[in-house]
Amino acid sequence: MKREINDLKLMIEAYKQTIKEKDVQLQSLRDEYVNLQALMAKIGGILSIDSVDVAQTSNVPAEKKEDSVMQQCKAITASGTQCSRKAEVGSDYCWQHKKTKVTSGSREIYTGPRGGRYYINSSGKKVYVKRKK
């Protein structure tokens, strides 16, 4: 019984030592994270200054510059929040929420983000159209 207690005490001491080592590693990682955040802030400041300089020297009219800036997708996700992706150029929606449709007979054929074509059946389910070979 005493031997088991001694073994347990040794195991506890070993775990305590491991915890101390991990705490030192964790603190080192926290310090590195803070340094990286500071570096990212400096880079962000440099990039924003550079982009302003480029925008001021560019020959592109102001209206065109505004159009070329990608906006956030305007779609609302199932969780009720706004989609976080960037909208495609010339559209208010990202690749996932942009609906491209073609009317074929009485059905509207949609094209998915990877090129798959489908229609919505009477039950509200997607039914994929087989590709022609």
Secondary structure blueprint with pairings:
Blueprint: H1 2-57, H2 62-68, E1 100-104, E2 107-111, E3 117-120, E4 126-128
Antiparallel strand pairs: 1-2, 2-3, 3-4
Fold and architecture overview:
The chain is α+β, with helices and mostly antiparallel strands and 133 residues long. Helices cover 47% and strands 13% of the residues. The chain has helices spanning 2-57, 62-68, and strands at residues 100-104, 107-111, 117-120, 126-128. The chain has a four-stranded antiparallel β-sheet with strand order 1-2-3-4, with no helix packed on it.
Question: Would you summarize the structure shown here?
Answer:
The chain is of the alpha+beta class and about 130 residues long. Helix content is about 45%, strand content about 15%.
N→C terminal distance: 77 Å
Uncertain stretches: 63-67
Total beta-strand segments? 4
Strand arrangement, major sheet: 1-2-3-4
State the helicity in percent bands: 40-55%
Proportion of residues in β-strands: 5-15%
Large-scale geometry: elongated
Could you tell me the radius of gyration in angstroms? 29 Å
Secondary-structure-based class equals alpha+beta
Count every helix, treating DSSP H or I runs of 4 or more residues as helices: 2
